[in-house]
């Protein structure tokens, strides 16, 4: 029921990580930013200091950590009443409405707590939120196996006449709720249901264990490493700790050593992975699916593992020639820099593609940063949304106690005719204890309330930008600017979703569709016509020269095929591991074969990269999602916006046909409509 708390993929899954250190600069002279830009370029207190505390996000109970307990109890009480109501209401659309209220009552607290538990600077708040998440999670488990509750929904789904009379969104949501019951094994007899619960618990434990193991360092006797490279690693007595791949290190030998040692197989982690995959397969079969992948892919755009493999194979075929060329280029560069040892190995890929990029195009971030002050970027987004959708962003004053940190900004998203659409809290700046991960959080989903009012969506965007300094406002590297656009794409998906039910609000859509709006924003961020609108030097006001924008865009194409090929390899591996069981070979042998077929750089004996593949946990059988979203976003860009990125008619169509539906409509149907409508009319 609460699997409605689907969230957009974290940025870690994104293809190219372009992180550069920020550049400096002198004091800025003048600004002409309108409010949203100014809100981010000025260091000023934004929230009221006097009066009563309103509580986090304006939730009165959350003025103190203890309030979580109270908010949680309220939610659980409301839940009980709604369960009663659902069980006594005759089949009809009201049932779906009650289920959605039920889900809303729990999500409202759980989603908020989910954010607070990782982002609040105060440990007491984080701890209280964590406790609340656990308690609500337990409640959800109970509800998903509540037979009486399920029965009321089943009756509705079985009543063909009533079902036919419902609008498509209501039908879709009813089916989604049913799906949550089914994957929890509600249709099983008591003994099997118990086994399903036990398996779920076991899987959760294995997932946690695997995640911990995936990040554990490997240590070796320091004598084994050549003395001149030891300083690159942490030394502990006689041992050296290898904590990662050192993929950007310029010394080939350091990368090679790190690769071989960090990926050296750990027997316990190997067992953990095998057991996790087997247990997932058991669970899937117990609730009626062939494989775990079949279970995971129900309700996605791809629908079946066969379709996913077809997609990945086609993509791989298309990339093949370009990937070979990329590898040749990298090898050429390695030959130049290290003639004695020029064979291209897996530890060379990220490093040499970076070297090539830097050599061909001078894209030194410090040249770009001065043009991308945070205020300028926000102005750019504001202008773009204004042109495309008639929407403006306004910085809003917050109340005492509403924020978890004083540097958070609250934006009101306002449509020229429809008025206020929702709120985005921008938690953009670095701070101690804040996870270094760009992410979008739904705090409250949009839905049509019983009184006819629309419950406005509320989200948080989390980034880790540097603070402004005495001499300059916050300046973004091109990579950070692109990330900001990406995350704003998620936020606008949330703001513009106008679903009747919060269960399918905004980004609560199938995983392989969730990244479409955000990746589409990356296309805008790379388009000169868009960038030219906002990129101004913070001191001189000069706009970013076109040649610099082109250089930036061209540099992104360098080795892009090889980068994507690597992702295809990971995605195939994820499919095979979650496919037919028992696996035909060991996970390492499968890795070796898949790497040769879908990547191209040789497998290195006595390594087991899969044991570090932490996304197997969160995205089990859905790692392909990012690639598929990218394919769809590229299509939408070409169909709708490449001719004119400010085309209002296209913007409106995109909003109406895609964003407005959240997860309330089959993504494939939305894609088809966009495709059909955007094609130039025949005969003209
Ligand atoms: Zn994303």
Automatic annotation (TrEMBL):
PANTHER family registered for this protein in UniProt: MITOCHONDRIAL INTERMEDIATE PEPTIDASE, PROTEASE M3 THIMET OLIGOPEPTIDASE-RELATED
Subunit structure as annotated in this protein's UniProt entry: Monomer.
Cell cycle among keywords: no
Protein name: Mitochondrial intermediate peptidase
Tagged with keyword Electron transport: no
Cellular component terms (Gene Ontology): mitochondrial matrix
Lineage: Eukaryota, Metazoa, Chordata, Craniata, Vertebrata
Cofactor note: Binds 1 zinc ion.
Reaction(s) the record says it catalyses: Release of an N-terminal octapeptide as second stage of processing of some proteins imported into the mitochondrion
Described purpose of this protein according to its UniProt entry: Cleaves proteins, imported into the mitochondrion, to their mature size.
GO molecular function: metal ion binding; metalloendopeptidase activity
Enzyme kind, highest EC tier: hydrolase
Organism: Chrysemys picta bellii
Keywords: Acetylation, Calcium, Cobalt, Hydrolase, Iron, Magnesium, Manganese, Metal-binding, Metalloprotease, Mitochondrion, Protease, Transit peptide, Zinc
Family in the record: Belongs to the peptidase M3 family.
Major localization class: mitochondrion
Domain Peptidase M3A/M3B catalytic: 246-672
InterPro entries tied to this protein: M3A_MIP (IPR033851), MetalloPept_cat_dom_sf (IPR024079), Neurolysin/TOP_dom2 (IPR024077), Pept_M3A_M3B (IPR045090), Pept_M3A_M3B_dom (IPR001567)
GO biological process, one term: peptide metabolic process
EC number: 3.4.24.59
Cofactor section: Zn(2+)
Subcellular location: Mitochondrion matrix
Pfam families with a match to the protein in the record: Peptidase_M3
């Amino acid at each position: 029921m609460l699997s409605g708390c689907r969230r957009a993929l974290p940025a870690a899954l994104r293809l190219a990580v372009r992180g550069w250190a920020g550049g400096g600069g002198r004091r800025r002279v003048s600004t002409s930013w309108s409010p949203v830009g100014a809100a981010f370029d000025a260091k000023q207190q934004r929230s009221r200091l006097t009066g009563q505390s309103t509580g986090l996000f304006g939730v009165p109970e959350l003025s103190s950590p203890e309030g979580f307990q109270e908010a949680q109890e309220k939610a659980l009480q409301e839940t009980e009443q709604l369960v009663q109501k659902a069980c006594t209401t005759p089949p009809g659309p009201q049932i779906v409405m009650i289920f959605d209220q039920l889900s809303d009552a729990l999500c409202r607290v759980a989603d908020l707590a989910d954010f607070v538990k990782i982002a609040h600077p105060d440990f007491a708040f984080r701890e209280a939120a964590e406790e609340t998440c656990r308690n609500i999670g337990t409640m959800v488990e109970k509800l998903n196996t509540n037979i009486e509750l399920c029965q009321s929904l089943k009756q509705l789904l079985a009543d063909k006449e009533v079902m036919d009379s419902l609008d498509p969104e209501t039908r879709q949501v009813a089916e989604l709720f049913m799906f949550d019951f089914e994957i929890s094994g509600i249709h099983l007899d008591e003994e099997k249901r118990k086994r399903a619960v036990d398996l779920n618990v076991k899987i959760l434990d294995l997932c946690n264990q695997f995640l911990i193991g995936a990040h554990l360092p490997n240590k070796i006797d320091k004598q084994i490493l050549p003395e001149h490279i030891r300083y690159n690693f942490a030394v502990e007595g006689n041992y050296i700790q290898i904590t990662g791949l050192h993929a950007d290190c310029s010394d080939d030998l350091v990368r090679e050593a790190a690769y071989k040692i960090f990926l050296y197989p750990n027997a316990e982690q190997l067992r953990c992975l095998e057991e996790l995959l087997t247990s997932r397969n058991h669970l899937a079969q117990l609730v009626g699916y062939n494989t775990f992948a079949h279970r995971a892919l129900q309700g996605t755009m791809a629908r079946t593992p066969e379709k996913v493999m077809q997609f990945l194979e086609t993509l791989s075929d298309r990339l093949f020639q370009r990937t070979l060329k990329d590898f040749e280029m990298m090898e050429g560069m390695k030959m130049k820099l290290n003639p004695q040892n020029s064979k291209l190995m897996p530890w060379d890929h990220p490093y040499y593609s970076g070297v090539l990029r830097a050599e061909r195009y001078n894209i030194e971030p410090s040249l770009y940063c001065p043009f991308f002050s945070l205020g300028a970027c926000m102005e750019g987004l504001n202008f773009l949304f204004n042109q495309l959708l008639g929407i403006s962003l306004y910085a809003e004053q917050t109340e005492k106690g509403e924020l978890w940190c004083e540097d958070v900004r609250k934006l009101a998203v306002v449509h020229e005719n429809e008025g206020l659409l929702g709120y985005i809290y921008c938690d953009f700046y670095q701070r101690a204890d804040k996870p270094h991960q760009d992410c979008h959080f739904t705090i409250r989903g949009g839905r049509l309330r019983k009184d006819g009012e629309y419950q406005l969506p509320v989200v948080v965007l989390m980034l880790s930008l540097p603070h402004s300094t005495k001499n300059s406002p916050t300046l973004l590297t091109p990579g950070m600017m692109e990330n900001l656009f990406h995350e704003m794409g998620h936020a606008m998906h949330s703001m513009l979703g106008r679903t009747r039910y919060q269960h399918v609000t905004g980004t609560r859509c199938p995983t392989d569709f969730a990244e479409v709006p955000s990746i589409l924003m990356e296309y805008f961020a790379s388009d000169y016509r868009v960038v030219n609108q906002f990129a101004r030097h913070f001191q001189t006001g000069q706009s970013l020269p076109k040649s610099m924008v082109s250089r930036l865009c061209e540099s992104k194409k360098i080795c892009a095929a090889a980068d994507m090929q690597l992702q295809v390899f990971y995605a195939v591996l994820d499919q095979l591991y979650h496919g037919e069981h028992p696996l035909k070979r060991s996970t390492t042998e499968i890795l070796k074969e898949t790497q040769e077929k879908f990547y191209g750089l040789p497998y290195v004996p006595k390594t087991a990269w899969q044991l570090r593949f932490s996304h197997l946990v969160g995205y089990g059988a859905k790692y392909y999602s990012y690639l598929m979203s990218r394919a769809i976003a590229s299509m939408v860009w070409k169909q709708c916006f490449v001719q004119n990125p400010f085309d209002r008619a296209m913007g409106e169509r995109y909003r109406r046909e895609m964003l407005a539906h959240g997860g309330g409509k089959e993504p494939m149907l939305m894609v088809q409509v966009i495709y059909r409508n955007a094609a130039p009319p025949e005969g003209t």
